[in-house]
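Follow-up to my earlier ticket, as requested here are the two runs.
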Amino acid sequence: MRHRQAGRKLGRTMAHREMMMRNLVTSLVLYEKIITTAAKAKDLRGVAEKMVTLAKREDLHARRQAAEVLTDDKALKKLFETIGARFRERDGGYTRITKLDYRMGDGAP
């Protein structure tokens, strides 16, 4: 039984899921807006919130922790210089999920 099991598997292995989340959060930082499925967006929200919280700290350890997740140096620089400064006064709730129409190719929500 699957009672009280947190998180989604998204039909992928653990390594695939982790890399997908790293790629999604890197794209979100670079472009500030991405289009993905609802389930992936809900999983991504937690990772993205943690990245912004790290960026608000602005110390070397936080930068190194964020570099472990992000796959691009430009994204790391933007996270700490632009996004961290933008949300300096806000305590959480940095991301918003907007539902769009079903995906054309396969009908994914």
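Run two:
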Amino acid sequence: MTGRDILIYLAMKYKGNWDDIYGAIKRKEPIDDMAFTDLLATLKASTITIIDKNYPDHLKQAHKPPFVLFYYGDLSLLDHPQETVAFIGSRKASEYGKKMARLIVSDLAKKMVIISGMAKGIDTVAHETAINAKGKTIAVLGSGIDYCYPRENIELYRSIKENHLLISEYPNRVEPDHSQFPLRNRIIAMLAKSVVVGEADLKSGTLITVSYALSQGRDVCCVPYPADISSACNSLIKQGAKLVENANDVYEEMGVDIVGKEMRDAQKYN
């Protein structure tokens, strides 16, 4: 039994709970061969562990980096962190928020991989817009890799699973729990070069992602809102976040040379 096998077994036994997995490793918990075989027989998804060579270096910088990521789809989408943007926001998105998300992501997706959390509202719009723009998207789940949440996103879940990248630190059909979403947010923040907040109120869970991003030196951008709306975006802009109204504003904050990138992309196919 390899170290990799042990990490996958513990991640499945303890349902992705970082503290429980760490505790088992620290006390050198013995593993029963039969229990190991039975548990791994339930695994459908592919896996990448923190000791694998292709585990993303930028994710290792996260607070409590996942010991194991369960995934479906194209793992190579994680290979170029400088070309990733997280687009996140409120579950109760306004029409203005959705409109701005579509406007910005439709252009960003032509050059960048779009990361979000597949939640209702802005996250869903970001994923769908990236797909409609013929771009690539990564969904980071706060539930088990085989558990679609919310259920209304089942078609989106299947599309990302088959054609993009679906990842979670929670195995199989672990049900979503309130405590898991802030932890999911740290992964989103660490996988992206830049985080764009499409919409958020002053008590939004989106701010947890922003906090993680800022603590690790990630760019943070926000869509502005009218002055008569209580918006976390406006508050963040006042504190130094980049005001963005289109994809070019995001590229500018990221320091991306779009013309140079287009030439490099063209050379790949020559």
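The only thing I checked on run two: The radius of gyration is 19 Å. Let me know what else you need.
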